[in-house]
Design a protein that fits this description.
The protein has about 180 residues and is mostly helical. The protein folds into two domains: about 100 residues, no CATH class; about 70 residues. The chain is about 65% helix and about 0% strand. The protein is built from ten helices and no strands. Helix 1 packs antiparallel against helix 2, helix 8 runs parallel beside helix 10 and helix 9 packs antiparallel against helix 10. The protein is globular. The mean pLDDT is about 90.
Length: about 180
């Protein structure tokens, strides 16, 4: 699973967002306009059910949040005083919107290799072990980058319809990698 299909209006909004990032050096009104555009794009995707269910679960289901919070990412917004459509225009929501549209930030090469492996492996345990070898070979980052990499691996695995338990197991293995 990779980028979802966007309609003409959504493509325009995506272009207006320019990379799903908001810089503090940008004009205030421009930042607000970008956040409003993100909200329109998110609402449109939600209304037409264009976001894959598993990607929504990553945001809405506490069991997909592997941090110490024990609540969903959506509940974190609510706990911090942001709810309803205001979540969709919050600057921290941009990363989730980007994931909803594009999927994991792992390279296409790694995603394709994992997808091919999944299709050719009969047993989930074998898949997880072989996937770990691929992922370990492709990681050359620092300790800080390892956490981000592990999170993207988790996202890729849930996109590949790997069980939540196996996706968590592989993420945990990645978190134990030795870093430079």
């Amino acid at each position: 699973m990779s980028k979802i299909e966007l309609n003409t209006q959504e493509i325009e909004w995506e272009t207006d967002l320019g990379g799903f990032e908001i810089g503090l050096n940008e004009d205030y009104n421009k930042r607000i306009l970008k956040l409003e555009t993100a909200g329109k794009l998110a609402r449109s995707l939600l209304l037409r059910s264009a976001i894959p269910k598993v990607r929504l679960m990553y945001f809405k289901d506490a069991s997909y949040n592997l941090g110490n919070t024990k609540i969903s990412r959506e509940e974190i917004f609510k706990k911090n005083g942001t709810s309803g459509d205001n979540i969709l225009i919050h600057p921290h929501f941009l990363n989730y919107l980007k994931y909803f549209i594009y999927g994991s930030a792992l390279s296409d090469g790694i995603i394709n290799e994992l997808s091919d492996l999944k299709a050719s492996t009969e047993w989930d345990d074998d898949f997880v072990e072989q996937a770990f070898v691929i992922l370990k070979r492709n990681f050359t980052g620092t300790r800080t980058e390892r956490a981000d990499y592990a999170q993207e691996v988790f996202k890729a695995f849930i996109d590949l319809q790997v069980s939540l338990a196996d996706a968590k197991r592989l993420r945990d293995k990645i978190m134990k990698l030795t870093c430079r």
